[in-house]
Structure formats: structure tokens, C-alpha cells
Amino acid sequence: MSDQDYDREHEHQDWLTESESHDSQEDNPKSNGYRSDGERVNSLLPASEMLPERIYLLPIHNRPFFPAQVQPLVINRERWEETMRRVNNTPHHTIGVAFVGEHGVESLDHEGFPEIGTAVKVHKLKGEDQQIQFIAQGLQRFKIQRWLSKEPPYLVEVTYPKEPVNAEDEETRAYAMAIINGIKELLPINPLYGEELKHYLNRFSPHQPGPLTDFAAAITSAKGPELQDVLATLPVAERMHKVLPLLRKEIDVAQLQSEISEQVNAQMQERQREFFLREQLKVIQRELGISKDDRENDVDTFRNRLESLVVPERVQARIDEELNKLSVLETGSPEYGTTRNYLDWLTSLPWGVTSQDKLDLAHAREVLDRDHDGLKDVKERIVEFLAEGTFKGDVGGSIVLLVGPPGVGKTSIGRSIAEALGRKFYRFSVGGMRDEAEIKGHRRTYVGAMPGKLVQAFKEVEVENPVIMLDEIDKLGQSFQGDPASALLEVLDPEQNVDFLDHYLDVRMDLSKMLFVCTANTLDSIPGPLLDRMEQIRLSGYIAEEKLQIAKHHLWPKLLKRDNLSKRRINLSDAALKQVIDGYAREAGVRQLEKQLHRIVRKAAVKLLEEDVETVKVSVKNLEEFLGAPLFRKEKVLKGEGVVTGLAWTSMGGATLPIEAGKVHSLDRGFKLTGKLGDVMKESANIAYSYTLGHLAEYGADADFFDSAFVHLHVPEGATPKDGPSAGVTMTTALLSLAKHQAITRPLAMTGELTLTGQVLPVGGIREKVIAARRSDIFEVILPEANRRDYEELPEYLKEGMTVHFANRYRDVANVVFK
């Protein structure tokens, strides 16, 4: 701090100290604040007769100051210190207070001051930190006549206008009485002004209407501009006319506030009364021995749950042990919460509760036919499964695996099985599951431990024999947290699941009454030990006729019902529906078909609204308006030398697989493969090349053809990965066709694995491959002899119109192809 700052600070302290000394002299009995007889005179009452003609101005922002007011004011020290110093040095200690509204300190100038303000006497001037405090005693209104200083400290010449009043006028006296009555009415409602109102009401009477009116205005909560208007009104009668409505409004607000307070207090009292009564009731019940604490309530709740259950002995022993432990633990201890949760799970399970199976084959057929079109062989397999359960007495403990491409209805068949049996159904997906605790639960030592999914299923379905669907079982994962597939071995093995142990419950449970239905797209990723415990039912893809029936009976009505539309509003012809199936949805399942039909519904809904028509007709002619150009064109069977159509199986269903063989040049012997082939398929191609090379003369071809020929073998759709041994026969036929210069002119497809000695070995996916051939209008196929039984088991509608040749050796294939 510099010397100048130090001197200035001490100078501030000096004049503030002098001010306090001056005020203290007023309180001295020897001063004018006391009468000669020693009785104290209130020094804050208006007693000044001589008011200065020049005064300093102090702006205030909240509300105007009235002559009848006495209250403390706090101002900014840095801004108004010089002003207050000068006021303190005046003999009269008077300053002018003017209401300037919301003007900021920086933007305030002399034009922002009103013409009328209030002269106040400064008492008890004190400075604290950044503020100056003093008590302001309102004296009289002033009117600014001339500005002597337009910058702080503001200095003006003022006059003190007279306030015209006729105290004897009846109207004035009536207004005065009304104001006094209003103040008295406000007194009991708002105790905030209680002492102040009592103090001033004793001083004012109807014969002093001016101060009475100012005081009434000062105690209201009206806004600043309204009060400034009252302050600027000099005629007392007119001022009273403005103040009385403000006072009445204040009374109304105070009454409303009082009513709200009474309501709140009444509610609080009622709640307190209810609380006290409840506490008294608890004490009375405890004294009479009829009350229970939280611990006893929990124990009774758990025991009541077990009354209607048939709990195994070993489980009941564990429950009794835990109940005894719970009864001695403190309710606030962490172990109490852990034990309580454990008992909550143990007593919530449906021990001994089972539902009655409906082993009615007619009912089962009705449910399956209602929910699904096609899949006749699958339905028969399920009916056989139920028939076996009829003689056995129940169908529990079986594990059914539904294998098929996406969208063929595996999950919905599981629901239909549950409905046909009259059992509860619970589904959870194990796809991507990498923690074995999801199956067998966490141990109770872990924070947040929970039972596994199977125990959760028990609790939700509330019976011991539900149908549990394990969806996407071929997509189980593995991680450092364990192997869920291995954990499922205990669940799905009928020899082990009688005593299934969940890590959380730590008691043996019987899962043998459950019926497990698993779903998968492929079998390749399912571990062998797990697959060995399941009974497989294959769901192949749908042919066009089956898709048509599914769309008409299930998909289309469901979409219309979901969007609250009727068949009359959107008319979809059968021909257009067939075109949707052939041109836009050729996948094995029906999900893509449902998406395309949904597109039609959306487009038709727009037409119904925008074109204001009653019916939208969808036919083959305008189908592209709804779905755009077809995604698939009619497949042409490739023909020519070295071109043969094979049959392949994929996870999406069956597909035709054209194979092309061509001679590139005669400069050198060579063999090239393209088409994104897997290792197994490359081996099949090399076997086919070697076999063909060694048996050219046997099949009537030039024995020296491949000695100087560079041959290129290609499998179209090179962006699609292809693998498997079933194309060996097809590749051999393509190479032999190239060597014999003899093309296959009729629609013919084949499949089978070939060995170096010419043996034709069996392959899988016969049903899917036959469906793929029919889809491409190929009705003549060659299959391995070992697959004859697979073909004969196909439903009649798939075999209808088909010509099938079975081959043991490749010579059988050559005899069919080349006659």
C-alpha cells in the first residue's frame, strides 16, 4: 500500500468515526435528544424545520424512499464515498434520495433522475469493507430546480413544494379512515410489519393525511414505477386516491398468502399427528406383544411363501439354516441384506409346482397348422415327439434342436410347441454369450451376484416344467470368463440335469421336467459333445408355393392388422404376390418377403392419403411403382461346352452353382482356378482334374487333349466365398464336356463328392439342393447313391415332377450326362 493510499484510508476512517461520534452525541442525555426532565426523545422523528437549498443526490434502484420512512440503506463505498463524505461535512447531514429504476451505475447520468425525490437525514454512518451503511430518516419531498454538478457527487438546487391538502374535507377524511382501516386489516394478516405498524398507527390520525398516505404507500410491495408515481403526486387527495388501491391489493395478497400458509400448516399438522399416532401404535403393539420388527416380517414372509410348495429336503434344510441366521443378524448389517436376497430367491422358486401337459395330438396338429404353413415333415416330427410323450407320461428332459436358415420360423415353432403342450414358454438368446455365470450363476461372494438364466426362468414362469428356448446356440462365444457351451452340457444332458447346481443358490435343482428347444443356423460351430445331447430337426428353406401360402395366410394379414388397414383398402393380387416372391425375396426364409410386403403397405398408405382414393390395387403391372426394379431376374441355366450346373448348400439355404471350364491356349499344359474357392473346394478341383486326365480315353475323349491345353476352371459369383467337397462331380463333368467338345443341352444339375478312383460319395443338404433346383426350374438332378434314403424321405410335393439319377461311380454320372 502506498503512502497516499494509507493516508486516504485513514482519512476515510476519520470522517466515518466522526460521524459515529456525532450520532452518539445525539444519544447523550446532555444533547437535544433528551428533554430537561431526562425523558428520551426519539431522534428519528421528523424535527427539522430548516432544510438546505443545495443537497447532494443519491440514486436508489429498488423502490422510492418516502418522507414517512425510516430505514437503513446500504450503498457502494467506492462509488458514493466522496458523496457521503461531503454530506457528513454539512451541518444539516441531509441528502436527497431519488429513484432511478433499473439504470446501471455506468450508464446513469443526470437525465435518469426524476424531478421529485425525498430529502433524508443521515444517521449512524458506518463503513464496512466495500459498503457504507446508514439510517435514512425521510423528511420531505424536494423538487430539482437546477443541476450544479452533473457528475458524482451530484449536487442540485432544490425547492420543497407544498402538498395541497384540506384535512377537514369529508372526502379526504373518508380516504384517510379507509387507509387507516386497511393498515389495521393488514396488521393481523402479515406479522412482518407488526411492530412498525403499531408504532406508526399511534402517531397518525385522519387529520394528518399526507404522512399517513406516504406511510401506507411505503409498506406495500408495489413496483417501483407505481410508487414513484405516488411520490411525484403532490396533492394529497389525488395521492390518496392512488394509494388506496395499492393497499387493497396488498391486503388481498397477504390474505392469499395467509390462506396458503394455513393450508400448509394444516397438512403438516395432519402428517405430524399421523406420525405420532403411528409411533404410539407401534409402542402399544410392542407392549402387547402383537407387533413385529422388519426382521420378523421378513422371516414370516419367507415362511408363508413355502406353505404351498413342495420343497425337497436338502433345500428345506438350507432354507431353515439361512432363516436361523437371518433371525440373529442386525438389519443394518451388510450380511443381513445378502442373506435376505438369497432367501428371497430360494423361496420365490416354484418348488414342486408343475403344469398339466396337453398330450392331445389333434390339438397339437391344429396349433401347428394354424401358426405355420408348409414344414410338413417338421410338424410330423413334433407330433411323433408328443406321441412318444403320451406313452411315457411326459415329454420332459428332451432337448430339441431346430436347425435351419434365418427366417424359416424356428423361434415361432418353439412357441407353438409350448402352446400345443399347454406349458409356459421362456426364451433367452445365448448368441454372443461369453460368461458361463449367465448359465450357472455367480457365487455369492461377489458383489451384485445373481443366479443364472435358468433360475431366473424358473422364477418368472412359476412352474418346474416350462418350455425353455435357447436361441442362436450356434453363436456361443468364449472368453477368459469361461466357456458357456461347456456349462450348457450339464443343463442339456438328461443324465446330469436332474441335479443341476447353480453357483448362487448352491442347492441341487431338477431340470429334467423342462423341455429345451434350441435353435441354430448351422451345426459347424456347435461343439460335438453339446450337439450329441440334442435331437436335431432340420427346417429347410421354403419353395415359392409355400411362401405364397405363408404370405397370404400370415404375413399380409398381420401387416394390414398392425397398420389398421383392411384388405378392401389395399388389394394385392396373387400374381403380384408371386412376382414379389420371385423377383424380390428368393431367400430360404420369409423375412425379406415380409419386408417387401411392408414396403407395399407403406407406399399404399401414402397413396390412400394423398390421392384420396378408397382402394389401392397392386398388380404385376404397377408393382415396380411400389418396390422398384426387381432384385432378381429369371435365372438362365448356362449352356455350352464345359458348362455344368451344380447344387450347393449354404447357411441361407440351397443354391445352384454353375461351373465353367475353358481352354485358354495350347502352348503348354496348365490348370488355373478362380471364384474365391476354399481349401476343400480347391482340393476337389484338383481331384477332378487328375481323374479326368487319367480317364479321357475311357469316356471317348482325345487322350492327348490336356497334354498341350492350359485349362481355366471358374465358379461364377467370384465375390462369394465357396467351399465344400460336393462340387467334385460337377467339376469333373465340366472338364470332360470341354475335352469331348460336347455341351449339355438340357436343364440338368448334379451334386456329389468324387474320389481319385471315381467313387461318388454322399453329401449333405439334399432337401435344400432339391428346393434350389426346383426354384431354377431344373427338374432333372444327379445325386449320390448313398443319398437315396435322404431323397426318399422328402415330402411328396418336393419330389413331384422330379427325375433323379443316383450314382455310385462317376461312370454312372457320365452315362446320364453324355448318354
UniProtKB/TrEMBL annotation:
<dbReference type="Pfam" id="PF05362">
    <property type="entry name" value="Lon_C"/>
</dbReference>
<dbReference type="InterPro" id="IPR015947">
    <property type="entry name" value="PUA-like_sf"/>
</dbReference>
<dbReference type="GO" id="GO:0005524">
    <property type="term" value="F:ATP binding"/>
</dbReference>
<feature type="region of interest" description="Disordered">
    <location>
        <begin position="1"/>
        <end position="41"/>
    </location>
</feature>
<dbReference type="GO" id="GO:0043565">
    <property type="term" value="F:sequence-specific DNA binding"/>
</dbReference>
<dbReference type="GO" id="GO:0005737">
    <property type="term" value="C:cytoplasm"/>
</dbReference>
<dbReference type="Pfam" id="PF00004">
    <property type="entry name" value="AAA"/>
</dbReference>
<comment type="function">
    <text>ATP-dependent serine protease that mediates the selective degradation of mutant and abnormal proteins as well as certain short-lived regulatory proteins. Required for cellular homeostasis and for survival from DNA damage and developmental changes induced by stress. Degrades polypeptides processively to yield small peptide fragments that are 5 to 10 amino acids long. Binds to DNA in a double-stranded, site-specific manner.</text>
</comment>
<dbReference type="GO" id="GO:0034605">
    <property type="term" value="P:cellular response to heat"/>
</dbReference>
<dbReference type="GO" id="GO:0004176">
    <property type="term" value="F:ATP-dependent peptidase activity"/>
</dbReference>
<dbReference type="InterPro" id="IPR046336">
    <property type="entry name" value="Lon_prtase_N_sf"/>
</dbReference>
<feature type="domain" description="Lon N-terminal">
    <location>
        <begin position="55"/>
        <end position="251"/>
    </location>
</feature>
<dbReference type="InterPro" id="IPR027543">
    <property type="entry name" value="Lon_bac"/>
</dbReference>
<comment type="subunit">
    <text>Homohexamer. Organized in a ring with a central cavity.</text>
</comment>
<keyword id="KW-0720">Serine protease</keyword>
<protein>
    <recommendedName>
        <fullName>Lon protease</fullName>
        <ecNumber>3.4.21.53</ecNumber>
    </recommendedName>
</protein>
<dbReference type="InterPro" id="IPR054594">
    <property type="entry name" value="Lon_lid"/>
</dbReference>
<feature type="active site">
    <location>
        <position position="726"/>
    </location>
</feature>
<keyword id="KW-0645">Protease</keyword>
<dbReference type="InterPro" id="IPR027417">
    <property type="entry name" value="P-loop_NTPase"/>
</dbReference>
<dbReference type="InterPro" id="IPR003593">
    <property type="entry name" value="AAA+_ATPase"/>
</dbReference>
<feature type="binding site">
    <location>
        <begin position="404"/>
        <end position="411"/>
    </location>
    <ligand>
        <name>ATP</name>
    </ligand>
</feature>
<dbReference type="InterPro" id="IPR008269">
    <property type="entry name" value="Lon_proteolytic"/>
</dbReference>
<dbReference type="InterPro" id="IPR027065">
    <property type="entry name" value="Lon_Prtase"/>
</dbReference>
<dbReference type="InterPro" id="IPR004815">
    <property type="entry name" value="Lon_bac/euk-typ"/>
</dbReference>
<dbReference type="GO" id="GO:0006515">
    <property type="term" value="P:protein quality control for misfolded or incompletely synthesized proteins"/>
</dbReference>
<dbReference type="GO" id="GO:0016887">
    <property type="term" value="F:ATP hydrolysis activity"/>
</dbReference>
<comment type="similarity">
    <text>Belongs to the peptidase S16 family.</text>
</comment>
<feature type="compositionally biased region" description="Basic and acidic residues">
    <location>
        <begin position="1"/>
        <end position="29"/>
    </location>
</feature>
<dbReference type="Pfam" id="PF02190">
    <property type="entry name" value="LON_substr_bdg"/>
</dbReference>
<dbReference type="InterPro" id="IPR008268">
    <property type="entry name" value="Peptidase_S16_AS"/>
</dbReference>
<keyword id="KW-0067">ATP-binding</keyword>
<dbReference type="InterPro" id="IPR003111">
    <property type="entry name" value="Lon_prtase_N"/>
</dbReference>
<keyword id="KW-0963">Cytoplasm</keyword>
<dbReference type="GO" id="GO:0004252">
    <property type="term" value="F:serine-type endopeptidase activity"/>
</dbReference>
<feature type="active site">
    <location>
        <position position="769"/>
    </location>
</feature>
<feature type="domain" description="Lon proteolytic">
    <location>
        <begin position="638"/>
        <end position="819"/>
    </location>
</feature>
<keyword id="KW-0378">Hydrolase</keyword>
<dbReference type="InterPro" id="IPR003959">
    <property type="entry name" value="ATPase_AAA_core"/>
</dbReference>
<dbReference type="InterPro" id="IPR014721">
    <property type="entry name" value="Ribsml_uS5_D2-typ_fold_subgr"/>
</dbReference>
<dbReference type="InterPro" id="IPR020568">
    <property type="entry name" value="Ribosomal_Su5_D2-typ_SF"/>
</dbReference>
<keyword id="KW-0547">Nucleotide-binding</keyword>
